[in-house]
User: Fold this.
Amino acid sequence: MCGIVGYIGTRQAYPILINGLRRLEYRGYDSAGVATLHEGELQAFKCKGKVSNLESLISEQGGIKGQVGIGHTRWATHGPPNDVNAHPHGSEDNGLVMIHNGIIENYLPLREELTARGHQFKSDTDTEVLIHLIDDIRKNADVSIFEAVRIALGEVVGAYAIVVMDVNTPHQLIAAKKGSPLVVGIGDQHREYFIASDATPIVEHTKDVVYLEDEEIAIIDVVEGFKLKNIKNQEKTPYVQALELKLEALEKSGYEHFMLKEIYEQPRSIRDSMRGRLRADIGKVELGGIRDYIQKFVHAKRIIILGCGTSWHAGLVGEYLFEDLARVPVEVEYASEFRYRNPVIYEDDVVIAISQSGETADTLAAIELAKSKGATIIGICNVIGSSIPRATHAGSYTHAGPEIGVASTKAFTAQVTVLTLMALHVAHEKGSITSSRYHRLLIELDSIPEKVEKLLNRNGEIKEIAKVYKDAPNALYLGRGYNFPVALEGALKLKEISYIHAEGYPAAEMKHGPIALIDEEMPVFFIAPKGGAYEKIVSNIQEVKARKGKIIALITEGEQQVGGMADHSIQIPDTDECLLPLITVVPLQLLSYHIAVMRGCNVDQPRNLAKSVTVE
Ligand code: AGP
Assistant:
């Protein structure tokens, strides 16, 4: 997934573009570039590496002028990260230049066709093929740049968010979107416009934004104004929304990394995901976003939960919650598998799609498949106005605030909080749990933010444990019941930011093979709070200890038995078993954070990753 920005207006474009790229760098960071138009001349710089590399290159070259420009930070799909494959890409005569987020699936036949017509390409990218196609159409059909873009996009198969700049129309930018996000900000009474992959580069300039819908094309003209058409050339009325995003949410606010800030934000973000929804004092859950669909849940014969990565782990917690509390059968599916395996989907299925970014391509595609079979689609997303909420029938936002760190932390606990509210609400409606358990769980859920706050005070001791295991080549995470998904999530956190190979397993599963991995080099992180199958996990710990495995155990405050067996233990507040994931994940987030920092890894922008995978 990549980050794209554009500006046209009364100010110099470059400072706005480069700052916008810094805000979008979490979306992809293997190469970057900008292009501007100044007095009829196109200026363009691009290079491998981070946005800071591009900044140095441009300042060495004496800067870049122009009141209209585009910028791009890349997560490579076609062609390795290098200077040539970096965006922007231009037509052969450099009369047109373009940036792109997405994948043109039919770029090879298009490239062959254009090559046969004499086009020569410099890069390996699908993007360069698209700008050549646009140029080819514009020249041969002698049409406007808008019309050439519209016709070219009609030939494209795949996903795109593009901005095209034409040397011959310096008062205009053309933007278009399908399957990848694109937002237009309207500034200074239409005297300037901002374009970006999401609202983060726009929020400091204007709150008035238009989220483009699929197959819409924006003609952004500082002379003629802002026009919106679709690929069929029909006029569309732009729906201008007021941004709710706050600028300070995009800063590190004194933390060394966004990830640490977001781990520490969890007492607030969990509270915000319950705000206006949980009335523990009167025993009420109010989920306005799905109010009209609660009966669908109550009468559902099955719930299918879709997600990827951390969102899939949250979905696994959802499975335990809905089956345990609401007695509804649940299947949790990797969206990428679900969409291709010809699944059986019934009209009375309720599908919950979980996504922090709301832009994950596989999840979006899985939603469309389920919707086409008549299922009811409920979203749990964090980014307001993103593509997934707009593709669902209803849903509940997690309200965790922007999550900039690539490794998801506060989004996970917010997703689990919303799933807990949903499961409790449905259970209460169905009468599948006693009133006393329902009320007790609501009161306990209400206390979770304070318990997380207290747990964060153990950061120092967790950092000390991280020092011991920062050079381990491998690691195992083991949990049972509600903590099995947390074991998977803890392993994902460690591997994606410290590059240590880590695996999560149900603790009982060790005997069926993985125990062969145990030796004195292997740190085993046991999630072993009181409750549930506590005695069983004690046995599992003994099995590992007998084979000299290093044991790091999360234990309930004051517990002695496991604490006495482990090489290191981290005490966590006690809570109801079904609420444990909201607690047990936090020490694992901190452990992976500290280990990654000690290993000198780029915690907020780990190698090979991007914050939202908008390509398949
Ligand atoms: C989690 O730390 C990862 N960044 C990744 O697995 C992420 O959860 C996954 O790509 C799904 O993203 P989404 O929640 O935005 O759909």
Q: What stands out?
A: The CA atoms of residues 130 and 328 lie 48 Å apart. The longest strand covers residues 96-104. The chain has a mean pLDDT of 94. Residues 435-456 form the longest helix (22 residues).
